[in-house]
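Record type: ASSEMBLY
Status: queued
Input:
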Amino acid sequence: MTEVAGQEPTICGRGHHAPVGSKFCPECGSPVDSPAANGLAGGARRRLVMVGGVVGVVETVRGADRLPDRATYGLETPREPVYSVAFASRELWGPSDEGVWTVALDLWESYLEAP
Amino acid sequence: MSHEHHDHHHPRPASAVELRAQALEALLAERGLVSTDAVDAVVTLYEQDVGPQNGAKVVARAWVDDAYRERLLTNANAAIAELGFGGIEGDNMIVVANTAGVHNMIVCTLCSCYPWPVLGLPPTWYKSSPYRARAVSEPRSVLSEFGVTLDDDVEIRIWDSSAEVRYLVLPMRPSGTEGWTQTELEAIITRDCMIGTALPTARESAAA
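Status: finished
Output:
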């Protein structure tokens, strides 16, 4: 993954080009892959991910934890990264009279798909 | 029907949920899995000693002490522990700060995950299906029902709590509170301000 902080055109979760610095794609409203580090380990860029077909942005690494789906049943499960992933409301619910808001979920690596 | 009788003579009938909880407690005690004393101790602790007054102390300190605010936002658990709070249902805390451009609100869409050490037990509405569904799908409508109207350009960020991560909103200090003591500030920081469904105002202090 190349890192050219703040210079390259940004790309939204649906592949549209968006102006540098935009948070949401002006064309489709989905989150934009931003080079801003936002606390990601090692200055990594924000990473676009998909969960259940919805594109979101990894904003922060929360840490590492056992997958609750298994751990809760006492099953052996290794720790895996947990991310705070932000989803734009339009990605989740479509356009709304209320404008755009963000829903942030803490998600385990196993839940994420590549967009 | 009787007119003079009071509740303590004729308590209202227990709800289905209360009966179920009583039955569960009786079964767990009978099988030696929990003691009634332990259940009573937890209930007493969270009814009397642990509640939003703890969170208000955290927020008030952050309002008057920039270094503390910084620690709170970078390592909430450690900063909250500095004031003597912590424990179950709050092992992994994240504090999110409101700004002029961002308003934060917390929810648990799955059930009722809530930061017990700083807010106590969750209110009934927080556990209700409509709040859990609507907080993420129409937050401005929900906020307006709570009496909160935000400018259109304020970004609303909804944080979905989980068994692992619990959130607390750090509201903005309202104008008109310059020179107030920490104790005076604590009095205007309500539970809902720290869930994100209310905004603190200097006005409320008049009644405090």
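Annotation: Helices of chain A lie at 68-71, 89-93.
Annotation: The interface with chain B takes residues 62-63, 65, 68, 82, 86, 89, 92-93, 96, 98-106 of chain A (CB under 8 Å).
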